[in-house]
């Protein structure tokens, strides 16, 4: 395909000047075509010398003066050789006399600049295209590296919270602690199977949230009420895994009290391609701000920026004694 493009391009370069000469009534077509064919090797020599050698070896390495001197020398050699060749043909075929040497060299020099200019334009376009592809690859690799780092950061944070929950159960309810270990093993299986996936089904993600909420409920007393409003039937949407778990963890971390009545609420809605997850918990007066909730939420914000740039909305507010966090993902 590349070879055919080159052949077609040079055919146009050869035939077009002949047609122009004929349209102006200067020469017969055979003579004009013969003149173009004679000039073609010189044009090709200049073009490919610059395209494959001079531009890369000199111009792109900032040896500008040497590049200009080399190009001028090559053009002068080509023009002089062409003058001698045309003079030879004209002398032996009894055609019109050649124009003065200086006039021929001047105009031929200008025409021989064209293949040099075209070669530079093509090489610059190719170079910019290659640089753009390389930059995109570097950006994609960095994105993947950042996401992998965030996943590795999320997993120990998640298991640390879950193990703390189990540890607190061992002392006063060993049976629940045993049940918690079984539930944690299911969650670990989900992590192992899905945490490296770019996308999982929304159904799997909601399943995981329900299992985690059930695990966390094992340590709650009657003073805490947990409300869950997840659809029974979900559309076949996919989503990046483990996006909502940090909001659930945060609610359990900051919204549960051993002495006061508290309430946690989790809901999920789907509107077309949008997924809206909402977490609410009672505000318990502490010295720690809910708006800067540590590794989990910071991790979530970074992942959202990388995975859904311009396609997510994360908001938090305090209203009527409740801390409300809402995350909207636009697929």
From TrEMBL:
Domain Signal transduction histidine kinase internal region: 145-223
Keyword terms of this UniProt record: Kinase, Membrane, Transferase, Transmembrane, Transmembrane helix
Residues annotated as signal peptide: none
Keyword Kinase: yes
GO molecular function, one term: phosphorelay sensor kinase activity
Transmembrane segments: 7-25, 37-55, 64-83, 103-122
Keyword field contains Ribonucleoprotein: no
Top-level taxon in the UniProt lineage: Bacteria
A GO CC annotation given for this chain: membrane
Protein name: Histidine kinase
Organism of provenance: Capnocytophaga sputigena
């Amino acid at each position: 395909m590349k070879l055919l493009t080159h052949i077609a391009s040079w055919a146009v370069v050869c035939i077009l000047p002949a047609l122009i000469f004929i349209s102006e009534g200067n020469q017969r077509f055979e003579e004009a075509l013969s003149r173009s064919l004679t000039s073609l090797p010189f044009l090709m020599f200049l073009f490919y010398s610059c395209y494959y050698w001079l531009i890369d070896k000199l111009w792109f390495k900032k040896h500008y003066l040497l590049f200009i001197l080399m190009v001028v020398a090559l053009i002068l050699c080509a023009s002089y050789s062409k003058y001698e060749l045309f003079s030879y043909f004209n002398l032996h075929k009894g055609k019109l006399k050649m124009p003065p040497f200086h006039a021929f060299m001047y105009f031929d020099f200008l025409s021989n600049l064209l293949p040099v200019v075209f070669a530079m334009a093509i090489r610059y376009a190719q170079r910019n295209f290659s640089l753009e592809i390389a930059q995109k690859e570097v950006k994609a690799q960095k994105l993947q590296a950042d996401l992998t780092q965030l996943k590795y950061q999320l997993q120990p944070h998640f298991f640390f919270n879950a193990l703390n929950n189990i540890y607190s159960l061992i002392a006063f309810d060993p049976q629940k602690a045993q049940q918690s270990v079984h539930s944690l093993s299911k969650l670990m299986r989900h992590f192992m199977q899905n945490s490296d996936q770019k996308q999982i089904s929304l159904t799997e993600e909601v399943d995981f949230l329900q299992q985690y909420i059930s695990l966390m409920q094992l340590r709650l007393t009657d003073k805490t009420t947990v409300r869950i409003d997840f659809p029974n039937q979900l559309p076949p949407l996919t989503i990046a895994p483990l996006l909502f778990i940090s909001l659930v963890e945060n609610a359990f971390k900051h919204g549960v009290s051993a002495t006061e009545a508290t309430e946690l609420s989790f809901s999920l809605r789907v509107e077309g391609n949008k997924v809206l997850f909402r977490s609410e918990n009672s505000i318990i007066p502490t010295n720690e701000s809910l708006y800067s909730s540590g590794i989990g939420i910071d991790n979530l914000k970074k992942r959202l920026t990388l995975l859904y740039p311009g396609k997510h909305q994360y908001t938090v507010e305090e209203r009527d004694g409740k801390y409300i966090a809402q995350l909207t993902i636009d697929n």
